[in-house]
Amino acid sequence: MKRGRRIVTEQQQLLTFTRRAMVLGGAQIGIGAILAARMGWLSIAENERYRLMAEDNRVQLILIPPRRGWIIDRNGQPIAINRTDFRVDIIPDQLKDEERVLAELARLLALPEEEVDRIREDLKDAAGFRPVQVAEKIDYEHFAAVSVRQSELPGVAPARGYTRYYPAGAAVGHLVGYVGAASAKDYEKNRDPLLIAPGFKIGKEGLEKVMEPVLRGKPGARRSEVTARGKLVRDLDTRSDVAGGTLRLSIDAGLQTYASRRIGTNSGSVVVVDCHTGDLLCMASMPSYDPNSFSDGISHSEYAMLNANDHLPLLNKTLQGLYPPGSTVKPAVALALLRAGQRPEESVVCTGAYRLGNRLFHCHKRGGHGHVDMRRAIHQSCDVFFYHYSQTIGIDAIATMMRQLGLGEEFPLPVASQRYGTVPDTAWKQRRYKTGWNTYDTVNATIGQGYMLSNPLQLAIMSARIASGRALMPRLLARSPLKGGEALDVDPEHLAFIRSAMSDVVNGPGTAGRSRLPIANVQMAGKTGTAQVRNITAAERARGGKFGGEGVPWKYRDHALFIGFAPVENPRYAAAVVIEHGIGGSAVAAPIARDVMTYLYDPAKALATLEKMEEGWGGDIETRMAREAAEWANREKPAPAAPPAPAPASAASNAAAPAPAANNGAAAPAADAVGNEPVETD
């Protein structure tokens, strides 16, 4: 059956249209509601965000690095200051048309081609946020030439800022450290935008690093209105930076420089302590690096030269150099003997050697000292006396006294690190080597050899505590509270006796008679020390020859040490001098201590003596370092090939081979921080 045609009425059409209109209208209303809600969200909830974004498009905010706080000495003399400079950097993220910009900068700043190549390489390796240095310390004319064209050079950031400057140069290198640009690792720690501001530098070593929160200051900012293309319209306002705080040290800058110069061509350290307060007046460590070179960006050649130097100029010997203290510990051993009840007049006969079982321990005087009591044992530095009597009280009593005087102690100072050496005793050896203490270990430790290790600061504090009779603690920041200072748990009469015996070392018949102070009515007391750096076997001793003095390689020579204080009657200053491989404490270390003490009482006389010495050394520190750098640069240049030798008649086609280049390898570093086995022979 055929189905009939459907008839659509007007009512049905109206109903369909109404339904469709309602659906379409609902959709429109929904979309409108969504759009209205979104617009409301953007205009109300997100108002602040987009307002700031719009402001950022219109206004450019440039951080102004803060001026770093000065470092000054106890008298206000500058040690680290700031100098105004002009610089130009490139921000990689903002750089466009690199080749055009570099070509224009090369023209404006008269950059050599190798410097342009260096900038290209730095741009390849740089993170986008970190500025790349184009030039620094430029004159104002060049700075202005770049500044007026800044809108044409996107990514280029000329700036007027400050560079760190150290007037004393290498003399304060290890004391204050240096500054440098923040690394990507530094930036990742807290994403501080100041760290990537062109020209901003942070402390990298020494006090500059440890005291960064005090020295940094707060940045300023400059707001400028710019067009969409980044062209400057006008400066809106500027907020000045807040300079970092001034750091006042206990150091005497003049003394610090003098001591560094007086070390001369040697490698070592000089420390001077105020016996009244514990203030550190001098912490010289030489050779050193010039912190100005590091702050300005040290060259690969100069760093390689420092790293290859066997005198280790990158090591702070005052805090991180460890040395056998040698005979400088004998006053401490004598105090331990007195505490144990030994009388000063008790004596022993020194024949030049001491037998313990099947081992023979030598005195430094091969012919012996004869009858030796405690006073003579100190001022003549007789080893046999201490070999003999140290066994009566044992190492634990000796170690207790040494620690009380500051050996083996880590001091609360604002320094990145310090090594505190070893004061061995029975428990230490059992813990370290899982074996018991032997009598020969005591014999060795009693003359500052064997396992004994200390740094120059500890030796200076030992001297200051003996001189003052108080448990002084070293202080480096002038305004920090004094610590320690209470009386030592040592009989004052014992201390008076030791001070008198140490006076005889310099002012009597002792080992440092040539080092008396050339100052009227002022005497210095002290104790010399000579420490071996390697074990001398019985076979070597039997063969004879030289073991730690002239005629052997520098790194095998004995260390030279001296501790002292002045004046003897009412000690005000204490000092320690350690000269690596200096051979003799009385010949090398004690004269340096004499001149440093002389400077404290008569600077003009001390400087006159030093200037004559420097003439023989080839000039002052800066002159010698400049010459070494020039010699190193010449060594790095490839040697020219030798011209061909005349060909023999029978072999005219054979040319001579080029001459071999000179061997520029550096000497191996000295083994200064290792324990020495007992020095003995059978």
Q: How would you sum up this structure, described in words?
A:
InterPro entries: Beta-lactam/transpept (IPR050515), Beta-lactam/transpept-like (IPR012338), PBP_dimer (IPR005311), PBP_dimer_sf (IPR036138), PCN-bd_Tpept (IPR001460), Penicillin-binding_protein_2 (IPR017790). With 682 residues, the chain is of the alpha+beta class. It has 2 domains: 60-248, Penicillin-binding protein 2a (Domain 2), CATH 3.90.1310; 253-677, Beta-lactamase (3-Layer(aba) Sandwich). The protein contains 24 helices and 21 strands. Strands 2, 3, 4, 5 and 10 form a 5-stranded mixed beta sheet that branches. Strand 11 (268-274) and strand 12 (280-286) form a beta hairpin. The longest helix has 36 residues, at 10-45.
Q: Which properties best describe this structure?
A:
682 residues, alpha+beta, Penicillin-binding protein 2a (Domain 2), Beta-lactamase, 2 domains, 5-stranded mixed beta sheet, 5-stranded antiparallel beta sheet, 24 helices, 39% helix, 17% strand, disordered C terminus
